[in-house]
Amino acid sequence: MSTVTELRVEGITGVDEVARVQAALREHPEVRDVMVELVPDAPARVSVVTLEMLNVAKLRHAARDAGFTVVEASVTRDAEAAAFAAQAHARQTAHSRAAHVAD
């Protein structure tokens, strides 16, 4: 079972900051992947993938030590199942639309 912790992080504005926050978060052995999405005029979206639940305070601390501020955090447990469910819904919606157009 995987877990995805979504962080909204202030202070990430370019590739140097992306690399710095990724390196800081990856220092935790539980972290499998870190993805960063820059958002204009808003905190960056940082997704941290772990196999087990990781204390959000540890991630906040790592980001702070790297010079950033976490302003929001949310956790999705069993992220693979959640992603599969979302993809299944999207496929069903696309299939329904295609069938409706064909009629």
From TrEMBL:
GO function terms (MF aspect): metal ion binding
Family annotation (InterPro entries)? HMA_dom (IPR006121), HMA_dom_sf (IPR036163)
| Source domain of life | Bacteria
Show where the HMA domain sits.
3-71
Which SUPFAM superfamilies does the record match to this protein?
HMA, heavy metal-associated domain
This one is known as: HMA domain-containing protein
Q: Supply the source organism for this entry.
A: Paraoerskovia marina
